[in-house]
Structures are given as structure tokens and as C-alpha cells.
Amino acid sequence: MIPLRPCFRFLRLVLGVLLWTGGCGPELDTRTALIVQTLIDQDRDLIATRPALVAQKYQLMASGLQPFLRGTAALFYRDLSRYQDEQAALWHGGGAEFIPLYGDVHLENVGVAQDAEGVLLDVVDFDATVSGPFGWELRRAALAPHAALSLADLSPAVLSEVTRRFGDSYVSALQVLHRTSLPLPLTREQSGSAGKIVTELLADGRKRYQQAEELAEYTELASGVRRLRRDEELIALPDPWLRDLPLLLDSYRNTRRAGRGEDAQFEILDGVQRLSAGVASLPNLRFWVLLAGDHRQAAGAASGGEWIVELKEERDPPQPVAWLGRGPIGDNGQRVFVGTLALLASPSSEPDLGHVKRGGVSFQVRRVLRGRRDLDVERLTDRLRSGRYGASDCLDLATTLGQLLAAGHGRRAKAYAIATAIAQQQDPAGSFADSLAQAAAIDAHRLERDLLLFGRALVQLGPLLSARRN
Amino acid sequence: MKIILSGIGRQRQEGWCWPLFLLAVVLLGWIKEVPAHPTRLETGLPYSAEARAALPIPSAATPGQLQGGIGPLRLGLFGDLFATYRLASRQDQLFHEFELSRIQLSGWVSYEELAGVNITVDTVRSSSSRSYFGVDGDAILPRLKWAFAETTPWKHYLSLRAGIVPDLLLQYAEASWGFRVQGPTGLERDGLFTPGDLGAWVEAALPGQLGSVALQLGNGEGISLREQNNGKNLTAALRVAPLRARAPDLLLHALFRDGSIGAGSAADRRVSGGLTYAGARLGLGAIATAALGYRGIGDRWAAHLTTWLRGELPACFALLGRADVLWPDVSQRDAVQLRLIGGLAYSLPALMRLLISYEGTLPFGSLSAQVPAITEHAFLVQAEVRL
């Protein structure tokens, strides 16, 4: 015989719990829920360990379209990945499914690099590099100028033309690469065809490289000894990292592209933690280390050859790499190192690049250079609004970007495979460039809507989007 | 089991060479009765006395025999180990690797069939699906898969479980399919269900041994995450055994889940229906599922159909076949992902099965234009050891 009274009591209790738990928390529309979940998935451990920095990142992302674009690469790739709607269809094909990708080519990741022959245009941030289908990159790279230039109130027709030019330039450059089997010429200040925006950027970068501006900007002389400045963005290096710095540097030298170098070059003079840099990587650890350099400071000289290296924490890339079929390979520092070497425009740039892993944290190591200027979107917008740059300059910029991407992708004999894949999937109703422009417009529209939803969610859910902190 | 293991040890000591040893194993396997289906004690209510009497008598080589008693307590241990060689073509890459795809170990203790506890540990790669490194690189780590306290206060009529409890449907599909070694079931692999969840459930038998009805309340975040939102998943399952105690493992299933997932509380609802039969020599089933909320997209309707068949052949061989069909967005009916699995297994007497199988994943409609490409062809050679 079942004792009925306890059973009813139990059922009443269950019902009470259900009523109590149901409906708690604010209701979000499905898109906002996806945005929130994607961001939290990406930052889950950081929300627990560095909540203030994550909150700062979300605040920054909500401040405008460009920072939101930079902070939502994971969401972008989630939208593009499997099982999404038909807008997620991408160009792909045999031989072009698994090529080294830059990962996140937005305008502020493109800038000035320096090699043995001077300055050149290149991608300057490879945090998101992975090997994958070229379609991912094209779609992301087409969105970036569309979104950035829309801030300058360019007409939809101009924005569309910019994307078309980017696509045409990409395909043309691939065809040249395939025909000649020679690398494309690097974009330098004297190239002549880079356009006004890029040429001015390169000139700016050259000056800063020449002046070793990073020393003037980030260091100071105290009693004849150079040390890194301390301010809101450069703070004292915490333990255990301060204690481990010599070990980190020593391990880095084993992976340094130009070799271990002389011990004297790597004598540690000072170390700080850099805050508030980047958007997606804002909560990541960044350590700056002042090193003695080639020679000790000569009496009366402004600088004595000291140099700064940055150890930047590298976290998982934004792409759903598990669906690529190979699974995880190496650690994130290694991933970025290998990807950078595969994609650098000039084989002699970034000689100090290396990687190191300690305490479960993976770092990319490279030299801090103020000359490594990027295409700052705010400055670009101002100059477009003031009339210093016009629509034709934007078209030149798109052409140069298309060539830059094609040069990176086309290396390692992939140019033919990519060009074939694009040709095979050409929409009979329009060219490849047309469909790219259409996709960029759709993605830009979604980005703008997502920014609005994200801003509301931040107000509604709080600075950490209601994520658990424990 | 002790006898079998010590027998193998003696064969090694006598210095038999491997081909002769393998031949002996094959011949031995020909003679001995070795059921190929695994024993899964984690599924549902205990059998009734009549149903238990109708079950095949386990031999020494049947998995799940490692158990004994201490006073009023019964203790047991069962588990498995899957060693895999996989050759796969995907995303322009031909990749082959050895992998220890799973070690699972369950320990259970019960007190006079009234109360008990089950703790199950399995292994996972320590990096997440998007991660490039986990613990000590990407080491294989043990994790709790299930850990629940159970009470069956009234024979086989009522069961209550709390802790990390098994899913109400998945384990039945797994037991019926019988070849978990090949990979997770379609329901799990395609993201419809997870093997367990933190919560509690109650299951009550229907009169006349006609089946059971179960109700589960859980976090809804599966076994990998703690609760992310305030909503709780409520799942109701009905199991009907049309042949009652004559075939308690022939079940018709109906399941409804109202739930949410993630910090954004995206809808994660499921309606499933189907049939499973988990016999010793034959297993078959088909389960259809409709999902409102799929892969974190709360307003997405998805649908899934999985169907399988396994059957024992003479001489300890078995055939297996499965088809999983996924419509990730039912508004695009031609966008379909089809997974086909076919293979041949051979049961060794010493708790071991060898399996070779082909697995092909094919996209149709607009899915074929998505990247990373869904198309994959894989050939697997696997060994499964079961305790």
C-alpha cells in the first residue's frame, strides 16, 4: 500500500519549487541570448579570475561599432558555422579548405611592419590565426572595412563598391600569383599604387620606427637608469610573474625567430603589466619587459639601445576549430607563432617573435614598436569626414587589402585552389565581388543590430552579463 | 572472470606466439557463448522478478559480473575501455590517429535493494572544443559522468535519484545500440541530449508491468557546466513495454523536455518518441526528436531521426548499422545532414570486442555550402574491453 499523504506532500513540494524557479531572471530575445551566451562561453574563466577587466572589455565593446566588431569575432564565426541559416553559405572547395588564415582582419589589425628594407604594409595582429577554409576569412575581412567606413557616413553604394573592389582585387591577385608563381610585390611607401590612406600610414610608421618612439613614450630616465613608466596603463608586475620573468625570458629565447642572441641583450632592466590594450584581448595578460639591448647606454645619449618586449597571453581562437577535423594542435602561443610565420608578408620582419608557456598560460612574445601603427578607425573616420580622404581613397585601400589577403592565402601554392573554388561557386546572377558585397552588407546590418541588443543586455543584465563569477 | 584472466596469463607464460594465440582465441570464441550486448545498470527501474527470470543467464564472461556482498551491502564495479584507430578524410585533410576514446568505470553500492549509490567516472580530453590547450597540454582526464544516490523504497515500482543523474532517454538508446565504442549515439553527437545532468528524478512503474513514467528536474547544463541561469529543465518521460515482463527491454518511449540553456536562458526544448529493443542478440531502435532551441539558438526548430540495428551472427560476429538524420533548421527542409555507420564486430571471450566500422557524414541542400565542410569519411578499428 502506498502511503498517499507523504506522496502528495512531496508532489506539492516539487510544484512549489517549479513555480519558484520558473520565470526568474529577465527574459531575453533569442538573438540577445545567443550573443550573451557566446561571449560568456568565450570568457568564462576570465569572468571568474579577472572580472573587472572583462567588464571593462564589455563596456568598451558597447561604446561603438568598431570595438564591438573587434570583440565579437567568436559570435561572427558562430553565425557562419554549421547549422546556421542559408546566409552562412561560403565559398570553399578542394585544396582550399585548410589554409593558414589571419583569423580576424579588421582595419585595426592591419598596419605597418618593418623588415630589413624598411617599412611595409602587413597584418600586425595574428592572435586569431588558424588554418581553415578561406571563405571564413574573406567574409570577415569584407565586413571589417564595410563596418569601419560606415562610421564616416559613406553611402551604401560607396560601401558596396568598396567591398566589390576588395573582392575583385583579391581574385585578381590570386590569378597573378597562380600565373606567375612568384610572390606579389610588398606594399611599401614608394609602391605608388597603395593609395593615399596606406601611403600616409606607412610614412607615419616609418617616422616612429626611426625615432624608436616606444622608448620615449613608455620609458623614463631616473638617475641615469632607464625604466618603464608607471601609470594607469602600466602597473607593477605582480608575483608570481615578476619572480618568473627571468625563466620566461630564457624560455622565450629558445623559440625566438632570430635565435637566442647574446645574453647581454636580454638583461632585464624592468618589467610591468600593461592594461587596457586591445578589445577582444583586453583582459589578457600583457607583460612588458625592458631589456638592455645591444649596448649599454652611452653617456649623454638619449637612448642606449634598450628595447621592450611584450609577452601577450594568447587564448583560444574565435573560430570553432573543433569542426575543422584536426582538433587541437599545440598551444595557443605556438599556434600564433606558426601562423604568423606562415603569413608574414616579408620573411625578414618580426625577428624577435617567439612564444613561451608557463603556469598554464601561453604567451606570444614580440618587440614593442610604436612604429607598428595600425589603421586607426577613429582617425580614418575623422579624415573622411573632414574631406582629407575621399571615396576613391577608400577604394584604393580596399584594393590594397585584397592584395594583402591574397598574398597571404596564396602562399604555399594555394592560389589555384582558391581561385578555382571561387570560380566554381560563382553565382550566375552576379560576380563573386557582388555576392561578397551583398554578404558584407548583411553582416554589417547584423552587427549594428547586435550592438544595439548587446548595449541593452549590458544595461539589463549588468557589467558581466549576469554570468556566474564562481 | 578470475579464471579467464589467469588463463590468459598462463598462455603468455607458455610462450605461444601471437598468431597461434589469436587463432586459439577465435576457436574458443566459436565455442563459447559470449553475448555482445553490454550490461548497463544505470538505466531505469530495476527489473521485476518475472522480468528478471526471463533474462538470459549471464555467463562468467558477461560484463557486469564483478560484484559481491558485504553483510547487507552489495558492491559492484563495471566499466569499459575503448581503444581506437581512426582514419578520417575531412576538410582536405587525411588524418589518422590512435586514441583512447574512453575509459569508463562505475562503482555502485546498494543496501538490500532499498538504497544505493552509483559513481561513474569517464575520461575526456582536457581542452574544450575550441581550445588549443587544456591540462598539461591536452591530457586525458577523468571526470564525473554520473554520481547519484538512489532509493527504490517500493520494490521495482518506485525509484528516486538525485545527483548527476543519467538522461531519461539516452541510456536506453545506448543500451539498445550496444556499440557505444563506435562513438556516441546520434542523439548525443548531434547535440540533442547530454548523458547526464545535475538534478533529481522520480520514476514510477505503470500497473501490470506495462512500463514506467519518469519526471526529472535538473539544471539543464549537462555534465560539463554548473548552472548558468535560474530556469530549471523539466523532463517527463513515458516508457511503455508492450510485451510486459516477456520482453521488458522492448520499449516505446515518449519524452518531453521544457528547458533552457546558458546565461542567456535560450530555449532548449525537446519532444522525442520512438522504440528501442535491447536484447542479448539483437538490438534495434528508432527515435525521432523535435527541438525548439538548437545549439544555443532559442528560436530554432530542429529535427532528428536516428535508427539502428545490431544483430549477432554465428561465431561471435555481429553486424551493426545506424543512420542519423539531422535537420538543423526545419524551415529549410532540404538542408539535411546524414550520418551512416556500418560495421562488423567480433566478440572475444575475455570481455573484449573488436570492431571495424565505416562512418560517413554527408550534407545535403544548403548544408553542403557551409564551412567547415560537413562531409567526412572515417574508417575505424577499435577494441573494447568491458568489465
- The total tally of domains of chain B equals 1
What is the gyration radius of chain A calculated from CA atoms?
A: 25 Å
> Which structural class fits the helix and strand makeup of chain A?
alpha+beta
**Remind me, CATH topology of chain B?**
Porin
Lateral arrangement of strands in the main beta sheet of chain A? 7-8-9-10-12-11
Count of individual domains of chain A: 2
Q: Spans of chain B with pLDDT under 50 lasting ≥5 residues?
A: 1-14, 25-40
Q: What structural class do you assign from the helix and strand content of chain B? A: mainly beta
Q: How many DSSP helices of chain B?
A: 5
Total E-strand runs of chain B:
19
Distance between the termini of chain B: 9 Å
Low-confidence runs of chain A (pLDDT<50, min 5 residues)?
A: 295-302
Major beta sheet summary of chain A = 6 strands, antiparallel
Mean pLDDT of chain A: 89
Mean pLDDT of chain B: 85
Tell me the strand percentage band of chain A: 5-15%
- Main sheet properties of chain B: 16 strands, antiparallel, barrel
Task: State the CATH superfamily name of chain B.
Answer: Porin
Report on the architecture of this protein.
The complex is a heterodimer of chains A (470) and B (387). By secondary structure, chain A is an alpha+beta fold. Chain A folds into 2 domains: 30-99 and 126-184 and 378-461, no CATH class; 212-367, no CATH class. Chain A is 48% helix and 13% strand. In chain A, strands 7-8-9-10-12-11 form a 6-stranded antiparallel sheet. Residues 295-302 of chain A have low confidence and may be disordered. Chain B is mainly beta. Chain B has 5 helices and 19 strands. Chain B has helices spanning 2-13, 18-31, 49-54, 170-177, 186-189; strands at residues 67-70, 73-90, 93-111, 115-125, 140-154, 158-166, 196-205, 211-218, 233-240, 250-258, 260-261, 266-267, 269-278, 282-294, 297-312, 317-327, 336-348, 352-364, 376-386. In chain B, the strands form 2 sheets. A 16-stranded antiparallel beta barrel of chain B has the order 2-3-4-5-6-7-8-9-10-13-14-15-16-17-18-19. The longest helix of chain B has 14 residues, at 18-31. Chain B starts with a helix and ends with a strand. At the A-B interface, helix 1 and helix 2 of A face strand 12 and strand 15 of B.
